[in-house]
Write a structure and sequence with these properties.
This protein has one domain: 3-Layer(aba) Sandwich (Rossmann fold), CATH 3.40.50. It has eight helices and seven strands, in the order H-H-E-H-E-H-E-E-H-E-H-H-H-E-E. It has a seven-stranded mixed β-sheet with strand order 3-2-1-4-5-7-6, sandwiched between helices.
Length: 225
């Protein structure tokens, strides 16, 4: 999926597989679990601004928007990606949901001011990046968020690699999914490695927790005052 100029149909099938993984194996639930307490810190009568980095087909923003609608919570969500091809896929997936804006941002250098949004999300993206670029993304998340951020990603492990390989070869015929699923686990950081990245970036107050299905989440809630 790091390739450019992918076949649009093949990419759409791959993104469909990722949405299924997020829905059934905790990706969406993990982000929503940590997003809700951050939203609770924003006055209910004020619109909350959420930025999702490296959004893919924007399934996480869509889940957040639907939850907010059910709860009567006013939110403005921006789903961003550096890839025009990904943004086209997100636009197709979001058809009929005009409440989510799409923007082309490089997650390593977002053209928004410090504290430009309330909450920053990033899901299943960090493992695609080498440490130097991962540091830039973490720094941007911390810089942009007034209230806090949620980073949701895979946690590297041998068992996770085996599970990803088996699941990819049993549940889909998509070439990208079969290639990327186990490779993503191999590329992923461990919780300790992620903690080291935050330390190198001098970002304090981050809680890193493991979640089922070889996931981990890093959450920061900005201190009030």
């Amino acid at each position: 999926m790091d390739e450019s100029g992918l076949d649009q149909r093949e990419l759409a099938e791959n993104l469909r597989d990722i949405r299924r993984v997020n829905r059934f194996f905790g990706g969406t639930a993990t982000t929503m679990r940590h997003l809700r307490p951050l939203l609770d810190r924003i006055p209910a009568d004020r619109e909350a601004v959420i930025l999702d980095l490296a959004t893919g087909s924007a399934d996480i923003p869509l889940a957040a928007a639907r939850w907010a609608e059910r709860c009567g919570r006013s939110v403005r969500i921006v789903a961003s990606d550096i890839s025009d091809q990904m943004l086209d896929a997100a636009r197709n997936h979001l058809a009929g949901h005009p409440g989510i804006a799409l923007e082309r941002y490089d997650a390593r250098a977002v053209t928004l001011p410090d504290g430009g949004v309330d909450i920053v999300l990033c899901s299943l993206a960090l493992h695609h990046l080498p440490p130097a670029d991962a540091l830039r993304v973490l720094t941007e998340m911390d810089r942009l968020a007034r209230v806090g951020f949620v980073l949701n990603d895979l946690a590297r492990s041998r068992l996770g690699f085996v599970a990803a390989w088996v699941a990819a070869h049993v549940t889909t015929r998509n070439r990208l999914t079969r290639h990327d699923a186990p490779l993503s686990v191999l590329r992923a950081y461990t919780p300790n490695e992620l903690g080291d990245l935050f330390a190198q970036a001098r970002i304090n107050g981050v809680t890193i927790a493991r979640h089922p299905w070889f996931r981990m989440a890093a959450v920061k809630c900005v201190a009030e005052g």
